[in-house]
Structures are given as C-alpha cells and as structure tokens.
Amino acid sequence: MTPALHPLLVILGPTASGKSALGIALAGKLNGEVIVCDSTQVYRHFDIGTAKVPVAEQKGIPHHLIDLVEPDQLFTAGEYRRRALIALEEVKSRGKLPIITAGTGLYLRALLEGLADAPERSEELRTRLRIIAERRGAQHLHKLLERLDQGAANRIALRDTQKVIRAVEIRLLAGKSVSSVHGAGREPLAGYRTMKIGLLPNRKALYSRIEQRTTSMIRQGWLDEVGDLVAKGTSPNAKAFQFIGYAELREVIAGKLTEPEAIERIQQSTRQFAKRQITWFRREPGVHWLEGFGDGPSIEDQALEVVNKSSHET
Asked: Which CATH number characterizes residue 288's domain?
C-alpha cells in the first residue's frame, strides 16, 4: 500500500508582496511551521535589508532556514536543498504542516524538482573570470555570457557577478547551455503533496509598497546595520554585501553616495528585482494565484479556501 503523502504548502511571490505575513497567519490556523526559502536570509547579521521577520513578530511560529552561515561563506542551491529536506522531515515528524515562504525561485526549484548534474566548480576558471570582472567591469562579463548563453544572460542580473561567473563556468565546462544542464538528472521531492499559492498584487501598488518599505527600513536603522558590519570588518567582497541595498548603503558610508541617492537606487533595483521574480514564478506550474498582498483582509480566507479545496481533491 502506498503511504499517504504529507501536505506541503508553498507561498511564493515577489518581494514586499506579504509572503511572510501570510505564512505566519496560515501557520497559526493550520498548525504549521514556516520554512523560509530566501537566498539572502540565510546570512547572519544581514537582517533589516533582507526583511527577516523579527522574533517578536513571528507570533510564536517556528521559522527555519534563516541565519545559517556567515556573510563570507558560500551558500548554494544544493546546500539549501540539503538543509530544507532535513527541516521538512523535522516539521513532519512533529505532525505539523510545513509552509514554505519562497522568494528565491532557484532555491524552490532545487527543492521541489531536484538539482541538475552540473559540472564542479573550477577555481582556476573562476579566478580568471573574477579578474575580467574587476578589470573590465561586470557589464563586460555579462556581455561574455550573452555571447555564450543568451538565455542565461536574460535571467541573470548584470550586477550579480557570482551568478554570471557560474553560468559562464557551466557553459564552458559542460559545453551546453545552463538551462540544458539544469533540465537533466533531477530527482524531484518525494513523499509530499504540494499546494502552491502565489501572491500577485497590482503592479502599481506593489511598487508603491516597495518604495514605502525601503524608507521604513532606513528608519529602522538599516544604515546603522551596514555601518556596524563595516566596522566589524565584514569583507566588502562578501556575497551578502552584493544584496540590493547593502552595496548602496556602503557607498553612503564611504561618502560616494548621499542617502537620498542611495534610497532612490535601492527602490529602483528592488522594483526591477520584483519584476524578475514575477517572471520566474509565472513559469511555476500548479500555482493558485491570488491578486493582493499577503497581509490583505481577504487573502487569508482565499488562501484557506485553496488549501481546503486541495485537501478534498486528494
């Protein structure tokens, strides 16, 4: 007899759409625990700008997969999957509903669909590519990726040098596109019945909230947080210092940008990031899309309806 599948709820959507609020609300109603799927929140000490939910606002709901590594440590989709599988089993063993709040599409894909048999890292090649980026700029490296793999270049932001380097590395070592490599040799998540809820607020309203949230983060002490990180000797080359906002605020501290200039750049970059997230998640299969913010008055009821309906269909 085939064992019953354990339910798994995924809440996905762009930044500032209210995934965390909805995840906490549903966990309270459905006896759940939250598993965060965010490539920025795995780093310790980078709190305000990565929108980690303060413990006081978690309403007693356990949150997993945040504050896992130091800022200068490498953290990959493969490592996320390994830790997420452990967290899922722990939540299941307590008879709880795992609720994944997903902002990083690549990490979610790695967990649900498995990882590709990609070539191992080549430090020699990576060193050469880093030198190119340092001497000729991130744009030149991104143009190299465009010539090698246009599809990967379309998906990766110009400023995300680490991902650009990995994409070039895969293309050169595997001899085929990143999408071809990622499409082969996957082992999907087994033992779970996955329900997916997507948040899709009105674009204008989302952009307005992004602007408001950026100024709110500044008021909460984001600039001081960055100043403390610099003062403690956190390497400017740390992956976490490449996150939206942290690079700009470091330039404020260095006197290269004014605070208003930095805020404007952060808002613009975050809007562009949200747009890329929406494009990515639109390709995710089986999503029940809800038009609104996760902390909106009716979204919680709509989400519960989706969960109940999905439960009755199995």
From this structure: 3.40.50.300
